[in-house]
Write a structure and sequence with these properties.
The chain is built from 2 helices and 7 strands, in the order βββαββββα.
């Protein structure tokens, strides 16, 4: 299965970020269906404020991905941080937040039903 970036539906659109999510992009049975995601983030985009209200105010969904370009700081529950840069393949376990240090383009794969709930939470925070 393949899909062009601009054909992936935008789930979140703000001045600082566009998060695209294609449900049913893969099936890792017996584990879960996956969503394929493409994020375009401007420098300074910070997910911490829109994750408030979730468990520990963090995203509790694992993500696997590839950083096409840019730089992100990923913060974890215990206060640890790591930097993801252009060309990095990554895994973020549950319990994280993300901030763009530079304009960034990211591809991710996430458990669909769990991440859709996080996206819905973010959408409601953005709606006010």
């Amino acid at each position: 299965m393949r899909i062009a970036r601009n054909d992936i539906p935008a789930a979140i659109t703000t001045d600082g970020a566009i998060a695209r999510m294609q449900p049913d992009f893969g099936d890792a049975t017996p584990f879960a269906k996956l969503a394929g995601e493409y994020y375009s983030l401007k420098a300074g985009a910070d997910f911490a404020p829109v994750l408030q209200g979730l468990e520990d105010d963090l995203c509790q969904v694992p993500h696997w991905g590839y950083m096409l370009e840019g730089e992100l700081t990923v913060g974890y529950k215990g206060g640890e941080q790591e930097t993801v840069v252009t060309g990095d393949l990554f895994y973020w376990p549950p319990g994280h937040t993300v901030k763009a240090e530079a304009d960034s383009e990211v591809i991710m794969f996430s458990p669909q039903s769990e991440h859709c709930r996080v996206i819905e939470h973010i959408q409601s925070k953005l709606a006010g």
